[in-house]
């Protein structure tokens, strides 16, 4: 009988952190889940680190051929999922022990909710917390999905958080077309908004996940590219969903998105000494992270 929940982990050059990530998943108080991990041809020993989990009954290890960036590996690991609910966790992020239990309880209790998200903490390469309880833009409890998506656009940022914060109904993700790859730098936010066109959102206003920062995530080049893709995503969402966003909504969201990209860039530079055990080269293309 399939597990109720599929936790899927796309990895790519996460050797420094992937063991901690997997152990945080296996330590969940909720146990009716499968854990599917797909490594995207890592070159840093990530695949070797994963072998210690090969004999765990809930774990399936896969490899994804090189190429295609994050959409290829996220798609690969999601296609292998069989659970009613799906949660994607990147290969260096962390879950609090009750994260799955609390999110499953929400989806079980609210059949019209297609996606739930929690707040999250930000941690550095050593796992040290430097901000807490970020995200959700003040939302709490059940919110109509279209209202939640609009709130994300006019906030100019991904209020739902990184994938580790989110759990979705797997059939809703499939009906929404899977992971959206038209703007790969915002693959998560555009997918979440697509899913929310199909039902309600539930905001859990406590931090149940941790997002690990690394310098490779934010360069000047990336800030420009991501802000441009966020703007494109806003307008695509408006075109595909009549009445969702006004012209004023788009102007506000686009302006904030452009500004937020550089605010985050500045914050990452300030925190640079804590980001990674070793200096990272400036990234030029989207990766699986």
UniProtKB/TrEMBL annotation:
Name any one Pfam family assigned in the record.
Answer: Glycos_transf_2
Glycosyltransferase 2-like domain span: 6-175
Give the signal peptide as a residue range, or say none if absent: none
> Which positions are tagged coiled coil?
none
Q: Which domain of life is it from?
A: Bacteria
Q: Which InterPro entries match?
A: Glyco_trans_2-like, Glycosyltransf_2, Nucleotide-diphossugar_trans
Q: Which PANTHER family match?
A: GLYCOSYLTRANSFERASE (PTHR43685), GLYCOSYLTRANSFERASE 2-LIKE DOMAIN-CONTAINING PROTEIN (PTHR43685:SF2)
The protein's name: Glycosyltransferase 2-like domain-containing protein
Protein source organism:
Terrabacter aerolatus
